Amino acid sequence: MKKNLDIQLQALLEKEQLRQRQGINLIASENYASQEVMNVSGSVLCNKYVEGYPGLRYYSGCGVYDQIEQLAIDRFKSIFKADHVNVQPHSGSQANAAVYLALLQPGDTILSMDLAAGGHLSHGHKVNWTHQFYNIVSYGVDPISYQINYDQIEALAIACKPKLIIAGASAYSRIIDFEKFAQIADKVGALFLADIAHLAGLIAVGLHPSPVGFADVITMTTHKTFQGPRGGVIMCKQQFAQKIDKMLMPGMQGGALMNHVAAKAVAALQVSQPEFLLYQKQVIKNAQVAAQECMKLGYRVLTGGTDNHMFLIDVQSIGLNGRQVEEILESVDIFVNRNAIAFDRQPPLSPSGIRIGTAAITTCRAQESDMITIIHLIDRAIKNCNQPQVLDSIKEEVHAFMAQLFS
Ligand SMILES: *Cc1c(COP(=O)(O)O)cnc(C)c1O
Prior knowledge:
This protein is of the alpha/beta class. The chain folds into two domains: 38-271, Type I PLP-dependent aspartate aminotransferase-like (Major domain) (Aspartate Aminotransferase, domain 2, 3-Layer(aba) Sandwich), CATH 3.40.640; 276-406, Aspartate Aminotransferase, domain 1, CATH 3.90.1150. Helices cover 46% and strands 14% of the residues. The strands form four sheets. A seven-stranded mixed β-sheet has the order 4-10-9-8-7-5-6, sandwiched between helices. A four-stranded antiparallel β-sheet has the order 11-12-15-14. It has a two-stranded parallel sheet with strand order 1-13. Helix 5 (129-133) links the parallel strand 5 and strand 6. Helix 3 (63-80) packs parallel to helix 10 (258-271) and helix 6 (150-160) runs parallel beside helix 7 (178-188). It is globular, with a radius of gyration of 22 Å. Bound molecules: pyridoxal-5'-phosphate. Pyridoxal-5'-phosphate (PLP) binds next to helix 4.
């Protein structure tokens, strides 16, 4: 095949590379994978069909892949001290789907966090397939503290007798007490799934309490705070291993994406290095400093701060909605996402919140003082949103800021 055949796509790739290099990325679910992770996910490992699990494959020529997958499994086991690991899910949502289909019957009750309060689509939101298959009961947060109220969850669990309780969120900035969730699940005879999609990197290095030992099953993504390739992982107690593995393959998928499985192994090795602990500590410090600075400037930060890599701002107080703020900031190459907040009265497409995360910008080596600079850039952009010339000059400052960060 001719080299560099697709010049159209090449141009788009270059554009995207520039966006990633020049822009400030504060999207809480994103990160930058290392060059080594990207090299492996775009390697010769793309070319092979690999179905089944190590030692039991449905194609010939899988010897190397047995070793790669086993390496990935062993590394995840050692990081999280998990009994059993499946590294094949293509995504976090698919990991969750495999768990539900393996352990529940259609019509069973799931007790999970409401999307509007910080939960995830795949936990049973109206527009998700899970809503059609299962009876979803949602818990929210406390109307005053905006934190999880374990008494409310216990009362709901006693009332609805769920088959499965899910802990885990996409937009929640405080410690999640997995032990308490396990006690509630125990009390009502429910299974307990901890979805640590966002928290995996923090949990891996002990900066957030681990659900291992408390949860029956744990699902995660490898591309958020874990800083690896896009993908999912399932960890579980031995007694659920066979059911879950079988449901994922052959139940739900054919060939695993072995390039991604290998890249997950690389990411797991990186997570085991001492530098990764320092990185995650900086992620949390950066989020805390940024949240403080927002509050100093008069923004309403939900829960008054953060224990992890992200926080939510209620932008109603400045007379805008989350969509407007997202668009203003995008116009100066600062990327955040609009987010519903608990008790939101605005529609989902223009909710009242924005979510700010520090995993990606900390990968670009941002420190606390950089976070203060960034928050002031955001504040100025918002306050000058009707002044195109000011916005243009802020955009130039954003590019200069990123150039200095990488220098
Ligand atoms: C991101 C996320 C997922 C799903 O991840 P995808 O890979 O996008 O499917 C699942 N659960 C939670 C809590 C998440 O934040």
